[in-house]
Amino acid sequence: MRNRERRIYVRIISYLTFFTVLFGVATLVYARKADRYEFANEINNQRAVNELCESLDSITVSLQKSLYSGTRDMLLDIGNDLCRQGAMAKESLGELTTENSDTEEIFKFLSQVGDYTVSLSQGEDNMLFLSAEDKQALQALYDYSASLSSEISSILSDYNDNAVTFTESITTIDLDESELPESFSSRIESTKQTVTDYPTLLYDGPFSDSILTKQSLFLKNKSEITRDEAKKIAAEIMNEDIGSLREDEDVSSGIELYCFSVGDKSVSVTKKGGYPCSLTSEAYAGAATISPQEAVGRGAEYLSSIGYKNMTDSYYSVYDGVCTVNYAHEKDNITFYSDLVKVSISLETGEAVAFDARGYLMNHHERTLPEIKATKKGAENVISSALTILSVKKAMIPLETGKEALCYEFHCKDKNNKEALVYVNCETGKEQDIMLLLYQDGGVLTR
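RE: above sequence
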């Protein structure tokens, strides 16, 4: 009898132990699943807020361009861009907010900004004559967008500093209520009137994203050189003894290259024609001994010494003691922006620490220029009355279609001394593009 009771007791203990372990394992599994879900949700929210920042930045830039537009065709193109950018921003904002979020005003702005701009472009005459009320409305849209963009960027920065969370409620034993991070929804709901800030601009000069075509126009008929010939060219570029160079793996895609290195410096030379393509180094730049303006001159001299002549500087940026300058080919007083070479000059030594000639090598060729049908005076009439013309020159600019357009490049400023480049097609007399300029301590930026 006692043995039977003992067996029953042992069995009960075994079952209890089994279910306890099972419950513990299940709890651990579900906890890990919850952690993975929370992590995935956090990553998705972070992606959405980054995309929202990018979309709002693009909307602000497009609205500023709309203020400078002088023709209906240009304003229509900008309006279509705004429709697309607004849709992307709404999608990102929708992923970040709940149905109870007080973001109706923001969604309304994102829905209407493109449609409103497109509506202003309607009319039979291509010349754009906006009423004072229309100009005022566009300015108000720009101001609101700039403020909103600045506030969302601030929220993202606070999130990176753990001052904002995407979790609606959070409880922590170690922190009192005043130390808890704000929720994203509470911050976004309070976004009504914020401090205006200029949108972040990207450096690389105008049109640089469009210049790398699939096949090199410059190299296609050039003869191939040997590796030894390329090694000699590389040694001259790096100012090193040819015997010290290490032969690296060739590049066979895009532009075919021989590659060499010594120490922290690497150089590539085209197999066809033997032209320097790139130089990279990890040289540290100390205290500056020359100005960015002097660096621009040094860069031009360096390019001439390695075979790239008739290059004119356009825009530059300074970062960590290094001045990076964009140079474009110039001929017959026409700047060919596709034929781009970027050179980085150390402000400490005045020497080139990097260059990239892929734009030039891809696109430089003898061009047959189109007939100029639009006079400079006629092109001036296209420029918006909101802008004052500072200077004008001719430039060949790349288009999204892969083709190029010969344009008058008007350097302009508005009543607030903000500057822009307006391109008017020399054949059609129509606005082709608008670029915004920003001068700051780090250089001249465009967008």
